[in-house]
Amino acid sequence: MTDIKIGKWYDPISEQWIVPRETSPETSSAQSTEERLLDIHKRDEAERIWHLLVDCCARE
Question: According to the model, what pLDDT value does residue 19 have?
Answer without folding.
Answer: 86
